[in-house]
Design a protein that fits this description.
Layout (H helix, E strand, L loop, with lengths): L1 H7 L14 H11 L2 H9 L6 H11 L7 E5 L5 H10 L7 E6 L9 E5 L7 H9 L3 E6 L9 H22 E12 L5 H10 E7 L10 E9 L16
Parallel strand pairs: 1-2, 1-4, 2-3, 4-5
Antiparallel strand pairs: 5-7, 6-7
Length: about 240
């Protein structure tokens, strides 16, 4: 806490609008330079400030445990995968973390990565083959490129969330969890109703690491009711 207070106590860095740079780009750069989570991520070796969102959520909800398995959808640049690997102890060989993204991701200790488009028709089959069994957690920090049009952006991110949920139903173990990014403005009732049928508890969470001016939040569903008998000890990350 003292480190954060120290950073927040500094004078803010002001960035001049350079020739050829858009005003929006200047604002983004200034925000990055003054963001304590950006500085903290660099100091602590995380790939992105987003790592602290998962850290805060997991500290509160106690999702990720040593020996478990997690699938990180849209993992670039790797912050969430790093946190998951630390918490399930896949670097020590106890758990397992698999990450996928359309972009290339540099190697992360304890993480198996596959570069692929999650929305491509062959993605589910390729992922299931890689996993070789069911997982304890499906994590999705996926977000489409923002258009600036609130309704359009909401519909696009909800489509990603729904695709992630559809896949989670196929690969989660009984009792597993699903965590995905959405936008404020109301998760569509039909999607929430689906989650409530499939999971024991469904709620929204917004970590402090989410910027105050951001409309993002996360939907967390725990206690997956599906999975069948094949969701037992044969799945990746299962205890011996």
């Amino acid at each position: 806490m003292s480190d954060n207070r120290g950073r927040e106590g500094r004078l803010k860095v002001r960035v001049r609008t350079a020739r050829g740079r858009k005003t929006s780009s200047t604002r983004w750069l200034q925000r990055q330079l003054n963001d304590p989570y950006v500085s903290k991520a660099k100091a602590e070796g995380y790939r992105s400030r987003a790592a602290y969102k998962l850290i805060e959520i997991d500290d509160q909800q106690h999702l990720l445990k040593p020996g478990q398995s997690a699938l990180d959808l849209g993992s670039a640049p790797g912050g969430w995968s790093q946190v998951a690997a630390e918490r399930v102890k896949s670097r020590e060989g106890q758990g397992r973390v698999v990450g996928i993204d359309i972009q290339e991701v540099a190697e992360i200790p304890g993480v198996e990565f596959m570069q692929m488009d999650f929305l491509s028709p062959d993605a589910p089959a390729r992922l299931e083959a890689l996993l070789g069994g069911r997982v304890d957690h499906v994590l999705s920090d996926m977000a489409p490129h923002a258009t600036g049009h609130k309704t359009t952006d909401h519909l696009k991110i909800m489509a990603l969330c729904e695709a992630a949920l559809d896949f989670a139903r196929q690969v989660l173990k009984p009792g597993g969890s699903f965590l995905a990014k959405v936008l404020q403005g109301g998760t569509q009732n039909e999607l929430l109703a689906q989650m409530k049928r499939d999971f024991a508890v469904v709620k929204h969470v917004k970590p402090k690491a989410s910027r105050a001016d951001s409309s993002e939040l996360y939907v967390l569903a725990t206690g997956f009711r599906g999975g069948g008998e094949d969701g037992g000890a044969e799945g990746p990350g299962a205890e011996a």
